[in-house]
Automatic annotation (TrEMBL):
Gene Ontology MF annotations: ATP binding
Xref: Pfam families: HATPase_c_3
Coiled-coil blocks: none
Keyword Nucleotide-binding: yes
Identification of the protein by name: ATP-binding protein
Amino acid sequence: MSGSKPEQNLAMRFDLNVLKHLGLRMYTSLPAVISEYVANAWDAWATEVKIRIPQDESMSPDYQITIQDNGRGMTKQEINDEFLVVGRNRRVDEDKDYVEKDGHQRKVMGRKGIGKLAGFGVADVVRIRTVKDGRSC
């Protein structure tokens, strides 16, 4: 077409602060945060979840809460391709609303792919350690 301007592509960008804002705004209580991480453990086929909350009321700067499960774990590749994708909807990506293991199924609890950010609503530092097939990542 004569006289028309060429199409210009635009790109949406995100500042890393979006992670903090999503965590801070959506998860402001410790029970909600713990619930999200227990749901993640369920989706990873955990049969046991241990939650350690220190009983010291002082809430010192090095106060730590530990949530440990015996789920399937993740490889570095799975961490990068799946876990670190904020907003990834497993139900859509994998076209199913359940997870399978040894011929059994569990309904997936996760929905929006942002529960992993929950800890940022109540903590300055969030550390995740995973072990799969005896290898730690």
